[in-house]
Amino acid sequence: MTNGEVYQHYIGGEWTDGTGDETFESENPATGETLGEFRRGTPEDVDAALAAADEAEEEWQALSHIDRAEYLWDIYHELKDRHEELGEVVTKECGKEISEGKADVTEAWHMVEWAAGDARHPKGDVVPSEIPAKDAYMRRKPRGVVGCITPWNFPVAIPFWHMAVSLVEGNTVVWKPAEQTPWCGQIIAEMFEDADIPEGVFNMVQGFGDAGEAIVDDSRVDTVLFTGSAEVGHEIASKVGGEPGKLAACEMGGKNGIVVTENADLDIAVHSAVMSSFKTTGQRCVSSERIIVHESVYDEFKERFVEAAENVAVGNPLDEQTFMGPLIEEGHVEKVTKYNELAKREDVNVLVDRTELNDDEIPDGHEDGHWVGPFVYEADAHENLRCTHEEVFGPHVALLQYSGDIEEAVEIHNDTDYGLAGAIISEDYREINYYRDNAEIGLAYGNLPCIGAEVHLPFGGVKKSGNGYPSAREVIEAVTERTAWTLNNSKDIQMAQGLSADIKTRDD
Ligand SMILES: NC(=O)c1ccc[n+]([C@@H]2O[C@H](COP(=O)([O-])OP(=O)(O)OC[C@H]3O[C@@H](n4cnc5c(N)ncnc54)[C@H](O)[C@@H]3O)[C@@H](O)[C@H]2O)c1
C-alpha cells in the first residue's frame, strides 16, 4: 500500500488532511514493514466530522429504512467482491492468520446483510390498550449522531457491528478506527464513498485516544458505541453516564474460562481449549486464559494440552499452515511478557514457556515481527492471583484443577470481575444445564470453543465486560429511542386505570 501518499480523513463527503500536522504509520506486525502513512486526527477534526453528521441527520432520517439500506447493500456486494483482497489486508495489518483475516470480512458482510435485510421487517410493536377505542404502539426513532470507537482485533467486522444497524435505523455516524489498523479504516471509508452515501452521513477520523475522547465528550453525540479495553470502556461509561440523554454501549474484555468436567470427551476438550486459547494468538475478547479441569481427567488433559501448546505452529500469518500469528505491537509483547513473568513470581508451576521463540521458529524475513508463543502453567484454583484474574490478551493460559462437583467448577469459573464468554465440556446434560444457568457470562458454549460469534445471536458481556449491546438486534436498542404512541378513535376521552376524565366545576 505504501505509495508515498498520506491517507486522509473522510468528513462530510470529502477526503481531507484535517487540521493537524502529525501523521502516523500502520505497521505489519509480522514483519515490521510500514504499510502506509495516515493523518492523525485532532479534536478539531472530530468537531468538523460531528458538525457534518449533525447537519446530515435531517435528510437521512427523511429516507425510509429501505432506501437507507440500499446504500448498505452496495457495501455488502463490495465486501463480498473484495473478500480475498480485504482478508489479506486484515492479516497484513493485524497479524491474524489468513483464514481469520478472511472470516473478519465475512462477518462484516453478515452484519451488513442482517442490518439491510432488517430494513424490511416490522419496526416497533402494536400494543393492546385497556381502552378499546385507543390504538397503542411502540415506535422507534433514531437517536441522532452515533460515535463509533473500535479496536484493532476485528478491524472490519466490529466497525460494521457498530455502523450498519446505526445507519439503517436513521442515525449518522462519526467513526474512529483503531490506530493500529487505519488501512482497513481507509478501505471501509472508500466503500462508503463508492456507495455514494449522502455527505455527512458517514464520517471517519483516523487517530488515537485523543480523537476518541473528543467523540465521547461532545454533546452532539447521542450514543457512543465503544468496543475495546476495560480501562478505556469504564472511563467512557462513567463519563457518559453522568450526561442525561446520552447513552454509551461499551463492550470490553474478559478472563474467560472453560470448564472440563469428569464427564468430558477429552478430544473435544483439548481441541476446544487450544482453539479458545491460541487462535488469534489469544487476542480475542473471548479468548480463554483459564481452563478449569476436574481432578479425575486432569493429568490426561494436561498432558495433551501441553503437547498441543508446545507444537502449535507460530509463524507467517499469510501462510495457511500457520495457527498463531504475531502479537499486534511491540508494546503488547512487553505486556504479555510481563504477565508471564508475574505468573512466575506468583509461584505458579510453569508447564510451557515459549515467550521467546527460537530463531528457527521465526520465518525468514519476519525477524522484526512481534512474536511470542504459548505460555501455560498450573495454579491454585482458589488463590487470588493477579495472573489468573486479570486479562492478559495473549496466549497466556492457567490450568486450574478442581475436585468437587459442577457447583465448585462454576464457582471458580465465576471468580473474576469479568463476564464475557466461557464454555463447558461435558457429556452430562445436568452439568451442562447447571453451567448454562449459573455461569456469569454473556456468551456460553457447550462442547465448543468459547470463541466464534454469529451476528444474529446476542453478543456481549456482563459484570465488568460490558452492558451487552453490540450484536445486531441489541444495537437497535442503543441507537434508537422508543416512543409510546397512543391514538384515540372515539370522540370521548377515556383514561386507563379507571382514572376519571370528568372535569368537575365549582358549580357541580
Ligand atoms: N467485548 C468485545 O466485543 C470486544 C471485541 C474486541 C476486543 N475487545 C477488547 O478490546 C481490547 C483490545 O483492543 P484495543 O487494544 O484496541 O483496545 P483500546 O481500549 O486500547 O482501544 C480501543 C479504541 O479506543 C480508542 N481509545 C483509546 N483511548 C481512548 C479514550 N480515552 N477515549 C476514547 N477512545 C479511546 C482507541 O484509539 C481505539 O480506537 C481487549 O481488552 C479486548 O478484550 C472487546
Describe the structure.
The protein has 508 residues and is of the alpha/beta class. It has two domains: 9-253 and 465-485, Aldehyde Dehydrogenase, Chain A, domain 1 (3-Layer(aba) Sandwich), CATH 3.40.605; 256-446, 3-Layer(aba) Sandwich (Aldehyde Dehydrogenase, Chain A, domain 2). The protein contains 14 helices and 22 strands. The chain has helices at residues 43-62, 65-81, 83-94, 98-118, 157-168, 182-194, 209-217, 230-241, 266-278, 295-311, 330-345, 406-414, 429-438, 472-479, and strands at residues 6-7, 9-11, 14-16, 23-27, 34-39, 125-127, 134-142, 145-149, 172-176, 202-204, 223-227, 247-251, 256-260, 288-294, 349-353, 375-379, 396-402, 418-419, 421-425, 443-446, 462-463, 480-488. The strands form six sheets. Strands 15-16-17-14-13-19-20 form a seven-stranded mixed beta sheet, with helices on both faces. A five-stranded parallel beta sheet has the order 10-9-8-11-12, with helices on both faces. A three-stranded mixed beta sheet has the order 1-5-4, with helices on one face. Helix 1 (43-62) packs across helix 7, helix 2 (65-81) packs antiparallel against helix 4 and helix 5 (157-168) packs across helix 14 (472-479). The longest helix is centred in the first third of the chain and has 21 residues, at 98-118. The chain is globular and about 90 Å long. 53% of the residues are buried. The mean pLDDT is 96. GO terms for molecular function: aldehyde dehydrogenase (NAD+) activity. Homotetramer.
